[in-house]
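WARN  no MSA supplied for this record, continuing single-sequence
INFO  ligand: 2-acetamido-2-deoxy-beta-D-glucopyranose
INFO  echoing inputs
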Amino acid sequence: MHFSGPSAVFTALLTLVAFPALIEATSTELFGDIQNPGEFESLSLTRERQQHLCHREVPTVFFQTEKDSVERGNGSTIFFHRIEICCAGYRRDQYSGDCVPDCSETSPDNCRNGFCRSPGNCECFEEFVRNEHGACIHTCPIACQNGRCYLNGTCACHPGFVLDQDTRQFCRPQCSQTCGTHEECVATGQCDCSPGYRRTPDLGCQPVCAPDCGFGKCVAPNQCECFAGFIKRPNRNVCEAECYLNCENGFCESIYKCHCREGYRYDLNTTSCLPQCVDNCGQGNGVCIAPGVCRCFGGYEAHGTGCRPKYPAANTVTV
Ligand SMILES: *[C@@H]1O[C@H](CO)[C@@H](O)[C@H](O)[C@H]1NC(C)=O
Ligand SMILES: *[C@@H]1O[C@H](CO)[C@@H](O)[C@H](O)[C@H]1NC(C)=O
Ligand SMILES: *[C@@H]1O[C@H](CO)[C@@H](O)[C@H](O)[C@H]1NC(C)=O
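INFO  complex generated
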């Protein structure tokens, strides 16, 4: 999991909604897989497009901080708040507050030693080069990955490594055998699945789609091909039946039925799947913000799998 992208986006959210704990604990699950609900697209202003600002509807329950204060949402129904976020592929810059391109998906260190020009497009600074993992690394004469540098700028590989043919600036591990389909040489003599693929018992390395495709087949990393009769709604990467339910964190089995992912239960108010926690966080003493993760209301504290009333403060104890 790459946390740098999402956490940056959520740090930004934090300043908007001012609930640090909510943001920290949840990652992407909180909002399901709808990036920018399509029906709001037409309301976006040019200014917002240029600034890569999008809107997202978030169930109002996630904003609740006090046990007895249920808020009315300002979204499409009272059960949703509508908030501004950076569009997919962008993250909030912690200093400027602007939405800037995000390279964390293609660059393990989010384009350190380079310039993230557009989403996923990391350009290394001069005297750096992209290695096999997408990171920008020093070139000779300063360094040469898995080799040694000569003053004339030549990178000489250590035994078991070969010079990268495209750049001739770093050395890749060498495998004597040819690696299989969707595999690559990850260490000297060792093939493993390429990024985005996972080994299966029968079929070798297979692409991974997360969340899963619903009524479809995962044909490449995070690329779903729908079975006949099923569709992908705008900004969603799951194959489902046509329906009028939001069905976030799930997929529609039919026009009236939402199938929730594991760890989620269907909620009539939002027509979506909300995360599930043991015993509703201790009889409703907190909000379930991710499967099995509670955020306790004011005056309550974490206890076991849920929340319980805090002990009275010392100066209010009556004997
Ligand atoms: C809706 O409420 C949220 C949460 O309080 C707030 O951040 C957001 O700015 C509001 N949106 C609008 C359009 O008023
Ligand atoms: C650079 O120096 C090394 C060691 O002296 C030598 O083996 C190599 O051929 C040189 N390469 C070039 C391009 O001159
Ligand atoms: C649905 O909304 C109503 C009205 O706000 C609320 O009383 C009820 O608890 C909600 N149901 C669930 C399952 O959240």
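The CA atoms of residues 54 and 87 lie 5 Å apart.
INFO  checksum written, moving to next record
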